[in-house]
Fold this sequence. Notes:
By secondary structure, the chain is of the alpha/beta class. Helices cover about 60% and strands about 5% of the residues.
Amino acid sequence: MTVLRFGRFELDTAQRKLTESGNVLRLGGKAFDILVVLATSAGEVISKETLLAAVWPDTTVEEGALRVHLVTLRKLLGDRTSGRYIENIPGRGYVFVMPVEGSGVESLNQAEAKPQVLQQRFPRLTERLIGRDDFVAETAGLLSTHRLVTISGAGGVGKTSVALAAAEIISAAREVLFVDLASLSDEKQIAPTLASLLGLSVVIDNAEHAVLEALAERDLLLLLDNCEHVISKAAVIVEDILATTRLVTVLATSREPLRIAGERIRQLPSLPVPPEDSPQSSLLKYPAVELFVDRVMLSSELEDFNNPDTLTAAASIVRRLDGIPLAIELAASGVANLGLIHLVGSLSDPLAVLRRGRRTAPPRQQTLRATLDWSFDGLTDKERLLFEYCAMFAGAFSTEAALTLSAGVMAEEDFYEAFDGLFLKSLFSVSGDGKYRLLQTTRSYTLEKVRRGDQAHRLHASHADYCEKALTSATRDWPTLLTADWMRLYSDLIHDIRSAIHWSFESVESEELGMRLAANSKVLWVQLGLMNEQIQVLDEALKRIPGSAHEGTETELDLRISKGSALYHVQGYSKDGDALHEIDRGIEIAKAIGNVSKRIHANAARTAILCSHGRYQDAINATLALRDENPQAPSHVFSAMLEHNYFFNGDLAHARKELEGSLDDGSGSIRRTANPGLGFDQRITGLAVLVFVEFLEGNIATAMDRLEKSVQEAEDLGYSIASCLLLMLSAFPMASLVGRHSQANEYLNKAEGLAKQQRLIRWQQWISSYRNGLSEADNHDALEKALAGLAALRLEYFLIICGARTPTAHVERALQGEAGWCRPELLRLLAVAKFPTNPELAKNIAAEAVALSRKMRAVFWELRCLMTAYELSPRSDQPTIVDDIEAAIAKFEPESKTVDLSAAIELVRSAPCRSDLAPANVSSS
């Protein structure tokens, strides 16, 4: 026999009996099993998964069931009043902390917890849905014949639960996307929220258009929950989705219909309640009574519903609550504290409001308000305080988040006691990822209480402070977490950031906090694809700067850099002037206040914009001057600014030198976006330059192998800006130049998919240029139209892709700029164009191209220019050029393969006699 003793308790595991000072205590089976697992492993942290697997080995249950039984155990053991027994370890599990003595204590075989993998992105019901089976089945069936079904009904009637149950059925065959509109405070946030949930997670210009494109060929059920407060915009978006997609169906919940064409409205009634004269034997057949009994039994095992009086009291309660499920569940949660009979009496005052409401036919919100009044008044002081704090969260929140938010007013021990109490009273709902949220009606009710009280400012200030700390963690974790893991932790934070900024800007007293939140939340807006909204927030902050104490401070500096970055990504080339204006103001402030680090960051953004406009030497000069002014700064921060500008300026040697420091610094994290210039990943940018340097130097095999690995590395990173940069500036052009056109097309398609999905305007413009270069090269008018809008870096890339098909005027235009990296190729193209009318000039230009490529040590360009020089030279000069071609071939890395190299080898092979060479047919394109 195994008997465990702790404190005044004795646990007999063989007889399944718990006694206190000799008195047998009543304890449910599952609670007993949990106690055995914890007590036999006293002092060890037992994870929630291990507990669930040990106590429910053959059944999958939610964490909520475990919490219910743990609360029961704590109350029974007198936890927190007569010594601590069970301790919660945030993020890890539970531990039995009281010393345990006993005979034959053996470790239990803990079944290994099986992690749940959510197949669909929507919350799962944590409790049995009662009285709705037919409604759920009919709703699921209607969705096979109707593209829009709206579940309409009063607040608290259970619309969300019914919709989730229907979605559960449909998820066996189709994808389901759940959108909680309750967390949105502005109808303008609907489309950006949909875009983020669809994975459109970087820069979105027109979110609604992007959503329609993403859904065009998707076969999914879109579940829009709580539409009523954004009903007008929700209706417009749903109508657009139905009009532009073929396979998407929509299930909406709302207190009122969307009122658009094709809508199938399903009015969800309250649960049936027994009439006053119902016979005793029929009471449990009514779903409202069944729901009440079921929920009471979850939180209390002391009520006997076989007793006629108890069952009659239950029927009376649900009748008075009009069968509204939320009201019934709230009432049931009070039974554990008050007892059933006392509960009936405690409802008298609220129900007086309810009865008056029924006589005058008021909205059902009044019924729910009466229930919530009673529920709120029944909370302990600590529960009420914590409930007000949790109402500050605009979306889902974790236990740890609630603990952090309330830490200033509540000890950890008190927090868990209050949190458990609120959970048992059904005031929190649990989502599929283990986070909690308040029902919208409940949250609105509580916020109204807060507004009427005298603690509103303190609560909102605490929430804003929590947001600032959470942003610090999000920024800290961004370089080290995989994108999916980071999103799981921090994507919900955006709702709280919006709420906190909105509150902060309502008064001068708190606006500084709002400004800091606006400036420091860059990583969140970018990754969620909400940079247009970010610009609006930044503008709200910046308009408060002139004449304020924040003018010329670090706060304004951060706001300027953030806005410059957002403008660059969202607005494309047309707004680069505005972006530079913001960044230059940031540099001015950083210099004035002596903030070297942020001055360097702002200059990184500036040099990136200069580079995109072909001002490579200006970018180099500015960076070198900054480095000379700040010798104490780490050299690698300047290397990251210099590497690509040296490359594009044609200085491959200096580019390679700077790459060493940049790549070394960028190798220690998953991503290197700590440089908040324009948010490009330092390592991927460095790799993009390195592979092209290797390529031009003739190390073709090494370059192409490293390129493939870099493309995969960028893809694994899950950061579309980084992938598009590598694909557009290195992968596609390199594959095209060596003649691997199938691979080049794969790279272009991959970039196009990312840019289209994420609405990356800048890279869409690049892709359009490349597409024109490939498909419109023989169409003079179309080519001229495309070239008219190109300049600097984009023009340079376009020309090397199009080759000799490019109109001469545009080659000359590119040569007027600083296109050092491809200048030999541009000169070669100019020589080919001039040859028909001026052979001598063409010959001299080709010779200049060869000389420049040798000076750069760009072997790839050298060979290509020599082949053209051979074609354009008189027969007498060709033997010498063949010798030069043979020497150039020898400079290539072994195993290198390109179209030019193959042609050159064939040319040398077919010219055995240098003194009597026949013209070779070598392409100059």
